[in-house]
Write a structure and sequence with these properties.
Blueprint: H1 2-26, E1 29-30, H2 42-48, H3 62-73, E2 93-99, E3 102-107, E4 112-117, H4 129-133, E5 136-143, H5 152-176, E6 180-181, H6 189-196, E7 202-211
Antiparallel strand pairs: 1-4, 2-3, 2-5, 3-4, 5-7, 6-7
Helix pairs in contact: 2-5, 3-5
This protein binds flavin mononucleotide.
The site of flavin mononucleotide has 10 residues, from loops.
Length: about 220
């Protein structure tokens, strides 16, 4: 009798464990294929690139987000190299996505969003109100653990330069696709780090809200 009870208890525990796993997986977002062809000629996108702070709160579709993230730091070669260069190929910058439905980490190798939190962290992503209300806020995070063999000054320098490449790709994608964006340094980075639950070696560098332009 005791053996049967034990068997039932173990089976129940396995079922509960499996359902938790299913729930956790369901929260990740498998992004649709990015649109990698066509689009606006580069010189026209450069002519249109600008910072825009008048963002609509309207949601940005997963299709647009997919292409935006691929432009930001997606893989563009079979060996895993990216649309942006990175110092010593450390790939030390991660792009997090803050939306009303939570915080996600963009995984370029899987081209998906891994859910990190279900909380809305956008109120912590910038001192200006339009940042906190943007439908998508990209958060650029350097992981110093991946740059561990470099002197501290180089780590700081490369964290900034590598983020700049990503941000400019986002600016150009937005210019070419009638989206509004601005890169943001006015943010309490330590507080955001805490709200995101980042590790000791991870550091917020900049944030960048993206949305459809508000039409008055
Ligand atoms: C590193 C960096 C940090 C910035 N931080 C902010 C910011 O916190 N808030 C903001 O509204 N704009 C910010 N900007 C945007 C600049 O104000 C903007 O690029 C500049 O005014 C030139 O305008 P443009 O981008 O339209 O050419 C930042 C730009 C850079 C490069």
């Amino acid at each position: 009798m005791k053996n049967i009870q034990l068997l039932i208890a173990i089976t129940l525990l396995i079922c509960i464990g499996m359902s938790f796993q299913v729930l956790a997986e369901e929260k990740n977002i498998e992004l649709p294929e990015a649109q990698k062809e066509g689009g606006m000629p580069l010189m026209e996108a450069l002519a249109l690139r600008r910072s825009q702070r008048n963002l609509s709160e309207e949601a940005v579709s997963d299709q647009i987000l997919s292409s935006l993230l691929w432009a930001a730091t997606g893989e563009n070669r079979p060996n895993g190299y990216r649309t942006v260069p990175s110092a010593r190929n450390w790939r030390g910058i991660d792009v997090y996505v803050a939306r009303p439905d939570g915080l996600f980490l963009y995984q370029p190798d899987k081209h998906r969003l891994l859910q990190i939190k279900t909380d809305d962290v956008r109120p912590h992503t910038g001192g200006q109100e339009f940042v906190q209300k943007a439908p998508v806020v990209l958060i650029y995070v350097a992981d110093h653990a991946r740059m561990a063999d470099a002197p501290p000054e180089a780590v700081k320098f490369y964290s900034a330069t590598d983020t700049g490449f990503i941000s400019q790709n986002v600016y150009l994608f937005c210019a070419a696709n009638d989206l509004a964006t601005v890169v943001v340094g006015w943010v309490d980075k330590e507080n955001l780090k805490k709200e995101m639950g980042l590790s000791e070696t991870q550091h917020v560098i900049l944030t960048q809200p993206v949305g459809h332009p508000a039409r008055d």
